[in-house]
Amino acid sequence: MDSRTGKCILLSVRPGASLRWIVPLWAIVWGAIVGGSGAILWTDVVRLLLVLILVEIGWGELWRALTATDWATPLRRWQHWHLGASPSRAFWLPYTRPGSPAHRFALWLGQLASWGGTIFLPVTGPFLAVAFVGTVLSLALAAALGREMLLLTLGVLAYAQLATVVSGGRGEVGVGWNAAVRVGLPYLAGHLAFAPLTLPSLILAATFSFAFSGAEGRRSTRHLALWVGGYLVAAALLLVLRRPLAVPFLLFLGLPPLLTEGHGARGWFRRYGAWWMAALALTSAVV
Length: 287
Prior knowledge:
The chain is elongated, with a radius of gyration of 23 Å. By secondary structure, it is mainly α. It has two domains: about 1-10 and about 20-70 and about 125-195, no CATH class; about 200-285, no CATH class. The longest helix has about 45 residues, at about 100-145. Helix 2 (about 40-65) runs antiparallel to helix 6 (about 175-190), helix 7 (about 200-215) runs antiparallel to helix 8 (about 220-240) and helix 8 packs antiparallel against helix 9 (about 245-255). The protein contains ten helices and no strands.
């Protein structure tokens, strides 16, 4: 998902552009391969297309509307919004006397309506509409794909709200939040479309999300730790599953960023995204 557009799959390629746009698609496909039975039927293709639409349009629009919108500014205006105690400012409530609790409540409702119509809805109204459409579309597609996908979609909705609240509603969330929506959750959606979730799939979704988030930010000790930690956990999973021959290849694919200098903000994945994608494909293929 691109933090500026809110799209999970940014369908535009230009010379020198990174492979960031294809990451969610890659995650969905390999998640589906892990969950698939081997034989490909036309119904499987339809289900995969529905998952792509769910992740790209449904989740993508919902995520953008909630996390890329500045909710904090109009809400701060509400803290100081005051229109006086004029009866014309109050909602009409029957059997209310001036100064009574019901009258004060009517004044509060009038101020709320004035703030909503003057400040809140003009700023956030279009985004609320997008969030509503994205939610309805996501729930409809998820219901068609099964109960587990519906539960995952409800989890995505809760996750988007949590990310918005934790980030202060300023319209920008950290790369860690985006990594889960671009890697982990699409991977799980691809798997769930064809089989119930398994512990190895959950671990792979988490570890490669960590590695991706490490590669997205500026080169630092913390981001290097996320990258290395993701690969090491994936390697440990392969050992537990008795796939030791794949471990050296996986670790080799994680080496290049560690052997070079930093490339500035967001330059790391731009240069080594293909290595990360190969590591995800390799690990998913042997699990």
